[in-house]
Design a protein that fits this description.
By secondary structure, the protein is of the alpha+beta class. Helices cover 21% and strands 17% of the residues. The chain has an eight-stranded mixed beta sheet. The longest helix has 13 residues. The chain is globular, with a radius of gyration of 33 Å. The protein starts with 48 loop residues before the first helix and ends in a 6-residue tail after the last helix.
């Protein structure tokens, strides 16, 4: 058998006393010691490797923690009421809120929109004014209207403002012709572990939809009455307005070639699109 090769060891690595050598029997060689005195912490001392490893294991803040939970309901829609519950960071500006609402409700951003803060006492559709009115391009509004740029206001500016907090309604209007009003209700804050529970933490997705009901309303269908008529048409397995069905399947901007199921919508698809808004607003 081949002889095992001896490993080279330094004196500091030996653990047994050296045996006396010929001609040197009277001397005893003490074993080398390895104990190091504990290091005293000093100000400004670099972090040790062990501490660095521990710091990497420290959990980061959940991507959904402290987000606003907003229930958004599309007015005058029934059986079902089209609604979504969104989780959005407080620092999100209203131009990004607009994009999130377009995705969540399946709109195609084909029309003008606005946000308004109103109260039942101070706002009148015929003669009154909202407390605050936000648009993309306020410079295009009539001179007598006090309109602000939506990109300059965050959700926190409204929901945490004592002037508006708990006293007003937040409305998102899309398509001034059909007049789709989305009322936004502040439900509270997201749980500190919600992002992890929904599988969003891995992607650091800050804006998400967590629940809802109702198929996206059809673009250019003629408002509430037109939407109800369209749903009734597709409920009829035989007959119905064939031209209207064909319009929805082939020409409507957000139509479906398979037809219309008023309860069908896809939460996963909505969140995939919301994820494209970016990890943070």
């Amino acid at each position: 058998m081949p002889k095992a090769q001896k490993k080279r060891t330094s004196a500091s690595a030996r653990t047994e006393p050296l045996k006396p050598q010929n001609g040197n029997a009277s001397k005893q060689v003490k074993p080398a010691t390895h104990k190091r005195a504990p290091e005293k912490p000093t100000k400004g001392k670099p972090v040790t490797a062990k501490a660095t490893k521990q710091s990497k294991q420290t959990p980061t803040k959940d991507c959904q923690a402290d987000n606003y939970l907003l229930l958004v309901s599309l007015d005058d829609t029934f059986d079902p009421n089209i609604s979504r519950i969104l989780s959005i960071p407080p620092e999100t500006t209203f131009d990004i809120v607009h994009e999130a609402l377009q995705i969540a409700f399946g709109w195609t951003n084909s029309h003008m929109h606005s946000f308004r803060i109103e109260t039942g006492e101070q706002f009148n559709m015929l003669s009154g004014k909202p407390l605050l009115y936000l648009q993309t391009h306020p410079q295009d509004s009539a001179p007598e209207e006090d309109v602000k740029a939506e990109a300059e206001y965050t959700l926190a500016d409204i929901l945490e403002n004592e002037e508006y907090k708990g006293k007003t309604r937040l409305i998102y209007e899309y398509d001034m012709g059909d007049g789709w009003n989305h009322e936004i209700f502040h439900l509270g804050r997201a749980d500190e572990n919600m992002g992890k529970a929904m599988g969003l933490d891995e992607f650091n997705q800050r804006i998400a939809c967590i629940a809802g009901e109702g198929h996206p309303c059809a673009e250019d269908c003629g408002g509430t009455s037109g939407w109800e008529n369209l749903k009734d048409t597709f409920k009829k397995t035989r007959g119905g307005d064939k031209e209207l069905k064909e319009w929805y399947k082939q020409s409507c901007h957000n139509g479906d070639k398979k037809g219309l199921d008023s309860y069908k919508w896809d939460l996963l698809e909505v969140n995939a699109l919301l994820g494209e808004l970016g990890p943070s607003p």
